[in-house]
Amino acid sequence: MPPPNNYIYFYRCEIDPWTGQWSFWVRDTLTLVGTYTDSSWNTTGAVASWAGEIYNYEDDMAGTYNDRCIFAGLRYKTISNNNYQKFVISQQDLSSDDTVEWGINRINDTTFEIWDEFPQP
């Protein structure tokens, strides 16, 4: 059952760079723990990805055109600096695999919104 309108979730996902173990929290409650079985987690880069369409093309993404899903207050931390830092977003950082199906828009430096253009009833 979906949450009520204007319901706010707080998520946190962290990965241990030495072991590949990841931990995922929802509203400060540890909900999932797992371990990557290959070395894909042990690479460096400058990209963070959030997936709205997880399982298949027809699964509804969070948000609709008139009631968009907002990601706000994004933070990250690195191995060299274990403190959370502001994640600055530019419009060029945002993309959709299919702009006819899924919308994305930057609101400010740390906030963006996503929506499904054609949600299933």
In short:
0% of the residues lie in helices and 31% in strands.
Give your account of this protein's structure.
The chain has 121 residues and is mainly β. 0% of the residues lie in helices and 31% in strands. It contains no helices and eight strands. The chain has strands spanning 11-15, 21-26, 29-35, 69-71, 75-76, 85-86, 102-108, 111-116. Strands 1-2-3 form a three-stranded antiparallel beta sheet, with no helix packed on it. It has a three-stranded antiparallel beta sheet with strand order 4-8-7, with no helix packed on it. Strand 7 (102-108) and strand 8 (111-116) form a beta hairpin. The two termini are 14 Å apart. 6% of the residues are buried.
- Mean pLDDT across the residues is 76
Q: Report the span from N to C terminus.
A: 14 Å
Q: What fraction, in percent, of the residue positions are helical?
A: under 10%
Strand portion, in percent?
25-35%
Radius of gyration computed on alpha carbons: 16 Å
Residue windows where pLDDT falls under 50 for at least 5 positions: 52-56
Features:
mainly beta, 121 residues, 3-stranded antiparallel β-sheet, single chain, 0% helix, 8 strands
Topology (SSEs and partners):
Layout lengths: L10 E5 L5 E6 L2 E7 L33 E3 L3 E2 L8 E2 L15 E7 L2 E6 L5
Antiparallel strand pairs: 1-2, 2-3, 4-8, 5-6, 7-8
